[in-house]
Amino acid sequence: MKxxxxxxxxxxxxxxxxxxxxxxxxxxxxxxxHAVDGEVCxxxxxxxxxxxxxxxxxxxxxxxxxxxxxxxxxxxxxxxWSQLYSxxxxxxxxxxxxxIEVECVNESGPAAFAGLITIQADDDIRIPSDPSWLVVGSDxxxxxxxxxxxxxxxxxxxxxxxxxxxxxxxxxxxxxGFEIELVYSSAPGEGSWSAMCIDGKGRAIISPQYGPLxxxxxxxxxxxDPRVERLHATxxxxxxxxxxxxxLYVNVADARNGMGGLWRMRDNNGDDIFEEVVRLAEYxxxxxxxxHGLTIGPEGALWMIHGNMxxxxxxxxxxxxxxxxxxxxxxxxxxxxxxxxxxxxxxGGFLLKTDRDGSAFELVAGGMRNPYDIAFNAQGDLFTYDxxxxxxxxxxxxxxxxxxxxxxxxxxxxxxxxxxxxxxSPDARPAVLELDAGSPTGVASGHTSSFPEPWRSRMYLAxxxxxxxxxxxxxxxxxxxxxxxxxxxxxxxxxVSDLAFSPDGDLYLIIGGRGSQSGLYxxxxxxxxxxxxxxxxxxxxxxxxxxxxxxxxxxxxxxxxSLTELREGLxxxxxxxxxxxxxxxxxxxxxxxxxWVIPALAET
Length: 604
Known about the structure:
Helices cover 7% and strands 36% of the residues.
């Protein structure tokens, strides 16, 4: 397969998350060109924080030792010139005059100090070390002496501000007709990224796995660097993000600090600042098996997927479609001998639906292990990409990563240890596609893309472990789907943690997680205009799907579908329709309508 790629590197060499100017602005400074063994010197820099500043950061290093003070208080110490020491100056974000003082000690040989103050405000401010930093003596103050740019080649010290960029597009394969760009490489202080969404203005909102939310504005002019802003001082650690109108919903996996749950950030006056930040629901689950992907459904509701270590929100609706789960283990269970998911019971990973205010949550489906993301296709059906424990490969209960069609009342059979239901269990919904080994993360549907067919009608699945994105043809098959998989993107390393389509139809991806270097990429179609005619379901598949959707109304109300129609549904030719009918009949039994059961069992 012929591959094309284009590289556009916006590499940030400074420590602050919002400044994107070359590292060459920082200079190595000292009291003179020739340091003295055991010499002690002190530098001073006064600066002003403007009104409305969101954050101030100080980064520095020295050969050999340094101690930095903000307004007379110690803020950071360093003892390794090859390491950059960064600290967020929380108190200094208040408007007004401030002073940084740095005491340096040269043990022996050459000596130098390099530092940078960065301020996030309407006009971003950077204050690099240079001769304007004063040397403070016992009786006088003199300009410091520059020993050269930190980025200069062949110097005594390597550049401590240099950050290796994310994987080059040259190392990433895409199909003929596509191009991939590296739009931005994460800088120190921005964390390793776990989740992303694109807002209505085409900006990427990103959550580090351990850190507060940022927003990346991608310029139209390729000569201009992206602008990166912090959206909140502390809220982050999210595995799910979605924008609905002007609201940002954040699914936070941070039980340790009491922040876990669903949050809504709202811009009340159109100034692009989220003044209102409210937690709509609280639930535990701070691990990588905690609260995950968010999306807005065709009906405008908020949908979310959670891993198997997440608790339910308190406001779980009694009308939930998935309410009659059970372990249903016939044989004695063998728990994981390494302790993973021991004593975790059904429903395992689960799907929730709620309104925009989070007033009540409906448990729609369960029995998954750790699905990370969800996406609706053009027909309004919902899909996720789930995986089993990789160290169970070879065990009789292991199930490969699988693409699941999430239906009302769906049960997918994950149980901890050896109690997992077989993949052909008649009580569970089968996978649309059983895939090979991988680590499922992001899911996105191409129907909102600018890609030509057949790419536009495909579902896109991100695999973190093997550095790839798979494209899946969803083939209508009765009331559900079968599928065929195609390679789409492959890189080394290319640990994709999330992906989403922008309003203009381009695909954006982020790599990162577990401390790895992160990057934001864009994939665009640059080939010839292709067909715009999507694959259409046949008449039988359309009728079967409508029959399933009609019967699913009985999962929430016993009055929605007659008992006769539900019983007739059990004889339908399609297994997904029969499944919908069974869940509706079980609902009637749970609601006390069971007089029909004994006569029904006597029928042939």
